[in-house]
Design a protein that fits this description.
The structure is a homodimer of 459-residue chains. Chain A is of the alpha/beta class and 459 residues long. Chain A is built from 15 helices and 14 strands.
Chain lengths: 459, 459
């Protein structure tokens, strides 16, 4: 007798992942039937025409096929060759062998140096933050790292994880899969999706009253889907909140290079924690080569850094990693080249700077174009897109209709594929959708026009 | 308050993965202290000197950095260029974009053609087996595929999964992690680790008597750690057993190209199932680019093929895959080149044949050398190594001592790192260890001598 759906665990059945949910399946069916689809459902830059950085791809080619370094005619710049040699020697056996479970040591060393430069641990800050390579775990994209952290935190059906509303559905999906409780805390849409202490406390108190044991709080900064960027005070407030209630923090920082508004800068949870002298709040931070200016989603390179986690707990994380052996080595190599860019004066530096600026300029232009364009549609309101890769406009829709209805009709009418707000969470009685900023500028202008025309007639 | 070990779920704590367990940690510590370690704990061919196939690495380099195809001087053969172009066009966006959750369509099509050629679905068999690309899921190595299948099957703490004893510890670890029950069935060591119907029935009846609901049976063919190869009758017996008791089958076939004894050949569960006309037993089959003659462990390319699984259940598998988006694209490309080798007469064919034969010849030689060498040690018995990459000798050790003690002392004395039989499971009162056949022949001879010398004096 073949397997039946009724035998599958409730946890699996309850897991929902809207970013690749029914609307995307419908889009694929329409595309197979010949309709042109603009995929705005997922932050997948290279699928919408973004070019990979030459530096990364030269590194990967040299890693996969090292004899390329010896080609006559200098097809590869010396610094790319040198960097790939250093990786290959450090890895011991190249891209074809399993690495140790945490990932290749030289990559973890280099990630630690990257964190130190970013956070002032290289001596430039008053309170130096020193990253420890043994506290860095390389993973198949940051998604797998987030799942590992949640797996470590959820031990029973009463264990709760605080997540922002709206959130990125990896969190709700994984919490459901591991049998925990999702504890949503609202972001303040009227204040550009700001994070407020009272909203955190409200959510915590309500969860505890229901018998939930809150274990951790997740923060996504820059925000997905909101586009908001937290400042130092915001982050300090979250750390004090976590400390007060004995919570761990999951800091999803995969969009740390995607900040578009002048005057804003990325501040890491690790840095603020060090500045506060906080040594008793467990922190999991996540980063990736899928976002930023690389957009190398397909390579599946990511890492998790842990702080204030006892050695015996960290050993359990290593054990979980070891069961499926190690993260893919090309992804580890992509991460190595990401955190070790060409130095000023090195042969690859000019091209690298040029390619990065071009990508940053166009992302900035798209963020402004999209937020302003959507805000101008009657019945729409859209916060400025300070960071990340998304807009999450609020839409007025007739009573009795849902944002799923809206997004499905939008897809059928215009070929534009976005994700309903319900997949991310929103205040009852409100409706939203998430769209990426990633289509090229010309396409993005037509997207805005098509949405405006659609909205004017949709009932 | 930082996380404590006592808060981590029992399922995580109970998960054990001996292949990377305490003895391996000790080996790494000894190595850092300057001792020479021979790692025989894990099937990681390229870590022990096996060279990657040029075909695969050229494909990966061209995929990562497509301008290489245009290099003057014909640095890459035409067929590698053509194959990589076909992949890149089929993928739509190359290696830097997420693919659909199941994996790039052209790779799944090509895997289906590979299965058809292997199993006679291309018309060469009396009962054609047709593989369906929509039933193929590309994964980060076969380990992730096995975990997905187990996740689908285990819905409660009463659900049991039959696994061979000895087994590959991915199975016991994942069953523990998902909160299921491990139901061990013995393999018959006296008969070269044969699989017998009565031993299956005994295990099933005992589990049911304890209140366990047995959901599936796992079979590893060729066997890890046993080295045994199943014949058609064996496989048909397992299928009938599964049918009788309403079980799904997990067929771990990652060593299908690693068969060394003349006269033996690999027969897939899918093929026998089709020949029997069995359409009601759910089958999950696994394959990988980590083993075989590629040994590309680090690329983390693998796939799962499902048969006789209802559409609504299959949709749940796709959903689980979608939560972490997709398998890494370099691994998908490695798999594509694996299942689409150069054709006779194509420019890459000669080198490909030459490299494959060289690898096959040395693996055969090592399998014989190791099994004969170990069998000749007084106090050892070792079945012939018909397939896979391991020996699992039985050792006589003094009462009161364990195979963990033995393996730890062996490591400290000789630098040889093997895994105790207890990590794989064995009959009470017996002791074994698993060693790979992978060290180069000269090293393998010293390994055998060093083990013999160690065993003669160990008390």
């Amino acid at each position: 007798m073949a397997m039946r759906l009724s035998e599958v665990s409730a946890a699996v059945l309850e897991t929902q992942y809207a970013v690749r949910g029914p609307i995307v399946a419908r889009a694929q069916a329409l595309e197979r039937a010949g309709k042109r689809i603009i995929y705005c459902n997922i932050g997948n830059p290279q699928a919408l025409g973004q070019k990979p950085l030459t530096w990364i791809r030269q590194g990967l080619a040299l890693g996969e096929y090292p004899v390329l370094a010896d080609l006559p005619g200098g097809s590869f710049p010396e610094d790319a060759i040198e960097n790939s040699r250093r990786f290959l020697e450090g890895s011991g056996h190249g891209l074809g062998a399993y690495s140790e479970s945490k990932g290749v040591r030289i990559v973890r060393d280099t990630v630690a140096e990257f964190i130190d430069r970013r956070d002032g641990g290289d001596g430039s800050a008053a309170v130096p933050v020193k990253a420890d390579p043994d506290s860095i775990f390389l993973t198949d994209g940051a998604s797998k790292a987030v799942q590992t952290a949640l797996r470590m935190l959820i031990a029973s059906a009463h264990d709760g994880i605080m997540i922002p509303i709206p959130q990125y559905p990896l969190y709700s999906a994984s919490i459901a899969l591991y049998g925990g409780k999702q504890v949503g805390y609202y972001l303040d849409e009227a204040e550009g999706w700001a994070l407020s202490e009272s909203m955190l406390e409200d959510a915590f108190v309500a969860a505890r009253a229901e018998g939930t044991k809150v274990k951790a709080i997740c923060v996504i900064n820059p925000g997905n889907p909101t586009g908001a960027v937290l400042d130092r005070d915001n982050i300090a407030m979250v750390i004090r909140f976590a400390s007060r209630h004995g919570l761990a923090i999951l800091a999803d920082e995969v969009y740390q290079d995607n900040i578009y508004r002048p005057g804003l800068r990325f501040v890491s949870f690790a840095r603020v924690m060090a500045e506060l002298g906080e040594t008793d709040v467990s922190l999991f931070s996540f980063h990736s080569c899928s976002k930023g200016l690389l957009g190398e989603c397909g390579q599946r390179g990511g890492y998790m850094e842990i702080r204030n986690i006892p050695v015996d707990v960290a050993a359990q994380i290593t054990k979980l990693q070891s069961v499926s052996l190690c993260a893919n080595l090309p992804g580890q190599l992509a991460l190595y080249f990401m955190v070790k860019p060409p130095r000023p004066g090195d042969p690859s530096r000019n091209l690298y700077d040029h390619e990065r600026s071009a990508i940053m300029d166009t992302l900035k232009a798209r963020a402004i174009l999209l937020a302003e364009g959507l805000s101008a549609i009657p019945g729409y309101s859209c916060a400025p897109i300070s960071g990340a890769m998304y807009a999450f406009p609020r839409i007025d829709i007739p009573a009795g209709k849902t944002d799923e209805d809206y997004c499905l009709d939008l897809l059928e009418t215009t070929g534009i594929c976005v994700v309903p707000g319900s997949g991310f969470g929103q205040k009852p009685g409100t409706a939203h959708f998430r769209t990426t900023i990633l289509p090229p500028v010309a396409d993005l202008e037509s997207v805005v026009h098509a949405i405006a025309a659609f909205h004017a007639t949709w009932r």
